[in-house]
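Why this split exists: single-chain examples teach little about how molecules sit against one another. For that reason, every record in the complexes split bundles all components of an assembly together and asks for one structure covering all of them. Below is a record exactly as it appears in the raw files.
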Amino acid sequence: MKFVDEATIKVFAGKGGNGCLSFRREKYIPKGGPDGGDGGDGGSVILVGADGLNTLIDFRYTRNFKAQSGAQGSSAECTGRGGEDLILPVPIGTTVLDNESGEVLGDITELGQSLKVAQGGFHGLGNTRYKSSKNRAPRQTSPGKDGESREIKLELKVLADVGLLGLPNAGKSTFIRSVSAARPKVADYPFTTLVPNLGVVGMSGEKSFVVADIPGLIEGASEGAGLGIRFLKHLTRTRLLLHLVDIMPYDESTAGENAQVIENELRIFSPTMAEGDRWLVLNKLDLLPDDEVDARCQEVVDYLDWQGPVFKMSGLASEGTKDLCAAIMEYIDDQRQREKADPELEERASERRAQMQAEARLRIEELSVQRFQARKQIQTEADDDDDDDTDVEVVYAE
Ligand SMILES: Nc1nc2c(ncn2[C@@H]2O[C@H](COP(=O)(O)OP(=O)(O)OP(=O)(O)O)[C@@H](O)[C@H]2O)c(=O)[nH]1
Ligand SMILES: [Mg+2]
């Protein structure tokens, strides 16, 4: 299935049904009085968090979504039928924005959670409603109101507790395979992972946490190199990032330099994300002789002047992974408990997430503008070349 994490769609709520103008006409009842009924309300467009969806691909094919209009009222004081709401299932983790104002309309993070994105139009009133002692035969009705319509942007960001960050080949997918049932592809070439993968790590006592593996970043990613940094936005919902570093890079680079590349790209992408909790995970230790491990790891820590927690492991040999997962679980439990005890903390965390997402959005937008301009430039140059071509005189040999 193709992974699509952004889509722009138009939603149109249904119009309210018009009120009816009618008078009771029955044999032997002259001047039967008004009996026009009200129209029905227009249907609304409602997004609902659904199970089993993990892409917005459906919204790439169909872009206009209309809810039903309300029916007109009719005689004998019959109210028109209300238009049916249009329910659109979306993956859990979908943020909804008004495309024009950029305002976040809501964030669907739970199964069954709903968000009305276009309100159906209010129904019109039938002439029965206008009856009064002064006017017993009103000819007045009101029309149904138009339903709301707007263009909305859907943004899917996977829901995970922990995000993996690193250069291609750092061993992110190998790690997730080693600790969860997820089976992302692993290979010794860069950009094996093309879309985010989630793995559920089961711990003792039915506890678990979710890890997100995203495509690797490279130097210049923040300027659009490689797969770009757009996938980083998937880490904006996590509590903790693991920065995986290959301790034995296959080229002339050093592990420290490589780690610095990722740190720099992260900072450009979202300063708020870069300030969040991040652990350094030195990977592929199985490739080092035992007596070199400590010194090589210390080199990386010194190079980065790393102040945070450091873990050492081999994802391939599943060494050190258990300790790392136990520490992660403890960290998550502790955070959850603290947030539960102090609502202010939770609020601050959610503000932080919103800030990261805003920064991510801005950076991604800047990138797409740059890319658009670069393409235009290439096009202009190609057009210029074409002009040159037409200057060439073609002489046919007789
Ligand atoms: N020796 C050793 N090799 C490892 C280890 N972890 C990963 N590898 C190898 O490193 C290569 C890349 O591993 P992946 O897990 O695909 O790396 P990735 O970070 O997911 O790479 P991308 O998806 O390209 O970003 C593969 O050949 C793995 O077998 C490890 O702990 N030790
Ligand atoms: Mg991978």
